[in-house]
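Hi P.,

Sorry for the delay on this. The queue was packed all week, but I finally got your sequence through. Input first:
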Amino acid sequence: MVQTRPDGDCPDSHGPINLVSRNGVVCPFCFTLPDCSGGRGESISTHRCFYSKLFFVDYRSMSRFRGLWQASVNATKRALTWNLEDLVPPNEKYIFNFSSAEELKRWHLYSDSEYGGLSSASLEIQNPVNGSSCTGNLSLDINESSRWNISRSGFCGMRSKKFDGFIDLDAYDTIALKLKGDGRCYISTIYTENWVNSPGQEEDNSWQAFVFVPKDNWYIAKIPLARYLPTWRGNVIDAQLEMNPARIVGLSLSVNAEGGFPGAKSGPGDFHIEVDWIKALRSQT
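Then the structure:
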């Protein structure tokens, strides 16, 4: 019969002991404390009594098992303490909030001047801080000495730099932009991972929708994702394609001198648009 030892003196006359040793481990067979003060210098991983040898107990394996078990318990606790928001995304989500110069560093300008056109643009944070301001001039002229053989010009835009990975908007169905403009028609573009274009093409897939921006007053434009059409270099792709909102790699807002909604301001000349924020919305629950 195995003799259990309650709190008291160490059987080897090493002084008072408890059933919980310094490292919290007691031999489950002989109930001795291998690392008691002044003891034999054993640890629970090297301790071998008659019973542990009889049952082939490997305390190192027991320690590893205890570590795995504790990791499983911790994971279960985290799962039980999840917020509801982790399971059900909020009805709206900020994608960009233009409230600082740091946010503006995540964007860059582009225009036809990169290909021989003569349009120009600038991008800055408003002072006092109230969103970003993109201003410039649209020109239909082409630099005759350009090495690019372009047939049209008159466009400028601001595009976000590529995200570190993807933005997942699969839980949302609408893009919202808080804008103040000049009465022109602008183009909202969503860039997704390339799976529509031919293999080997480095360009992201682009999906575009027109947005009219009234003059001088702040306006919240809401564009359903279903309204975005697949395009390639500004031309609509005549095919039934579906955007993958879980693999978004960037956004842009641009303006063309020609085209857009009937009645909107168009043609060459100055343009001005301010952007306060861009959000994703879930209108259907």
